[in-house]
TrEMBL record:
Protein name stated in the entry: Bile acid:sodium symporter family protein
Transmembrane parts of this sequence: 12-35, 41-60, 72-97, 103-126, 133-152, 172-190, 202-219, 231-251
Compartment(s): Membrane
UniProt topology in membrane: Multi-pass membrane protein
Keyword presence, Transmembrane: yes
Organism superkingdom: Bacteria
Keywords: Membrane, Transmembrane, Transmembrane helix
InterPro entries referenced in this protein's UniProt entry, alphabetically: BilAc:Na_symport/Acr3, Bilac:Na_transpt, Na+/solute_symporter_sf
Length: 325
């Protein structure tokens, strides 16, 4: 019985990795259709994120983080893409296409000033990116978020936003900092053996966690999808293009810097994926409902784009598709 279950989980893990580009939009559709059911899971999302971060950090050592900091240019450029270049592009596109809708513009900018997404650790781990770089980017972005988000909004749209810095820090530490430290400590104490023993066993559960996160988060955008207007369709299209630009910019900059394949993968996902949940909290707390739509519509595209760029990266670099947590 035990052997059968192990084989099933291994097959399930391989299937999800192979068909991630198809599985992700199906999860998004499921989350929208069964929004009432999946919305009840939203309180679990931070804990599921924490588990995913733990999985992704099992192969990292504290010395790896030090190596990333010793060569900070890719890290610095990633932060600039996340918090300056993409928000500037969002502001330009919003001002050009929706000049009479300041709240739409604010929502577009907010979508692209929130921190990099914790779920990027899952994609980076699956496609053999640099987990130390990804964790470094997430940890630094986490520390900067309470300051970067209000400053960027004030800079780009003239909005002064009060952010619950301590609350945000606690949540992001729960989702990133603590599980990353636990995973890295286990790897350090076991001299790397935990990556070969525990990581493959947790891999299928990491995929299940990703599926649940996508379904739960997509339930938030269901009310907007059910009441679409021509302008909202246009906003959705612009958000799709800007979100894709994040992945492309991360890939392009790392390629120009002639980085190794692992760092190309990490910069692509790190610059492309956003903590939309954090943006939704800020939008709901400080802005009218109209600001929420550009932020939440990104939920529909983020995982689809991640799966699409993952396939492009795999095709270009021949990434392995072995078990990864």
């Amino acid at each position: 019985m035990g052997g059968t279950l192990v084989r099933f989980l291994k097959s399930f893990n391989a299937f999800i990795e192979k068909w991630m580009a198809l599985v992700t939009p199906l999860c998004l559709l499921t989350g929208v259709i069964f929004a009432d059911q999946f919305s009840r899971m939203l309180f679990l999302v931070p804990y599921i994120f924490a588990f995913m971060t733990f999985c992704g950090s099992l192969g990292s050592k504290f010395s790896d983080i030090g190596k990333v900091v010793q060569h900070p240019l890719p890290l610095i450029l990633s932060v600039l893409i996340l918090h300056l270049l993409l928000p500037f592009l969002a502001l330009g596109a919003g001002s050009l296409l929706f000049p009479q809708s300041p709240y739409i513009i604010t929502g577009m900018v907010l979508e692209f000033v929130v921190p990099s997404a914790v779920v990027s650790t899952m994609w980076v781990s699956i496609y053999r990116g640099s987990t130390p770089f990804t964790l470094s980017l997430l940890l630094i972005d986490t520390l900067l978020a309470p300051f970067c988000v209000p400053f960027s909004l004030r800079l780009f749209v003239g909005s002064s936003v009060q952010v619950d810095a301590s609350g945000m820090m606690k949540e992001l530490l729960l989702m990133v900092g603590i599980p990353a430290l636990v995973g890295m400590t286990l790897n350090q104490l076991t001299r790397g053996s935990v990556k070969q023993t525990l990581s493959p066993k947790l891999a299928p559960f990491g995929k299940i966690a990703l599926i649940l996160v996508v379904c739960a988060n997509s339930s938030k955008v269901a009310p907007f999808i059910r009441h679409m207007t021509p302008q909202l369709f246009a906003v959705a299209g612009v958000i799709l293009l800007l979100a894709a630009a994040g992945y492309a910019l991360g890939w392009a900059v790392s390629a120009v810097l002639k980085q190794k394949r692992e760092l190309v993968v990490s910069m692509s996902f790190g610059c492309g994926m956003r903590n939309i949940s954090a943006g939704a909290v800020i939008a709901a707390a400080y802005f009218p409902a109209e600001v929420m739509f550009p932020v939440m519509i990104g939920t529909l595209f983020q995982q689809i784009l991640a799966a699409s760029f993952a396939q492009l990266l795999k095709k270009h670099y021949g990434l392995p598709g072995e078990d990864a947590c």
